[in-house]
Amino acid sequence: MNILKSFKWRLKGVKVYALVGRSGTGKSFRAGLVAKKNQIELMIDDGLLIHNEKIIAGKSAKKEDAYMGAIKTALFDNPTHKEEVKSKLQSTKFKKILLIGTSNKMVAKIAQRLELPEISTYVQIEDVASKEEIETAINSRTREGKHVIPVPSIEVKRDYAHIFYDSIKVFFSRKKTKNFVEKSVVRPMFNKREKGAVTISEAALSQMVLHCVDEHSGNVKVKKITVSQNQAGFNIGIFVNVSFGEQLSGNFHSLQKYITESIERLTGIIINQVDITIDQVSHK
User: Fold this and answer.
1) Which CATH code for domain 152-284?
2) Could you tell me which of 185, 266, 263 has the C-alpha nearest to residue 225?
3) 2-144 maps to which CATH number?
4) Which domain of life is it from (predicted)?
């Protein structure tokens, strides 16, 4: 069956490329350059299917807590995850796809599991990055824990110019405490036009959360939204009012998932967690 489906891809003229390099050598950052040079529309990177710099399916291995969990996600070991990406591939028109992995064996296994044709072109990280650039990427990973996903970055900043630190860092202030955080912990700059930066204000991010709540649970009233960040991603706190008798557990777990998936797909921001606090229960 796999051979038959692979043959169908070949009949459609689909070519598979692979970018290979050790963990932390900057593959994801260089992937966009390889894709642009070879006019590649789709990428598979760490469990994600990316189309023209937008995540369209999958889940990120970079969000896994354990190393083995990350490996399994990157290799599409979970049947549900695998079928989601395969289904999206079937419904997407493309001629070229780039697989990103740490070895030839790894990318070949990804191609096999997603029932793609055999890889026709292998690109080694050393072909597209200098020794110094690779060493810098490794140091960034080992010392600072930075991870890259090849989608346009979104800088989250407040609405006032005087608190925007520079093109790399994002400044958050809570009362009088100050915290500078590396933006690239979540998404390093990978601007499509290579000029300036794509930004979204904290207020706009809050509006997105409000819109998600309204779409999913129109009878839940949001009182306050907080946004914070750590190396795992952004943490969103939502304080709500609900009516007495409202079904809470299942509905709110579903709402958490809806907010996380919607914002990640629309912005490229990694949402580490969404905490919902019931601030008040009112009678109808």
Assistant:
1) 3.30.70.1350
2) 263
3) 3.40.50
4) Bacteria
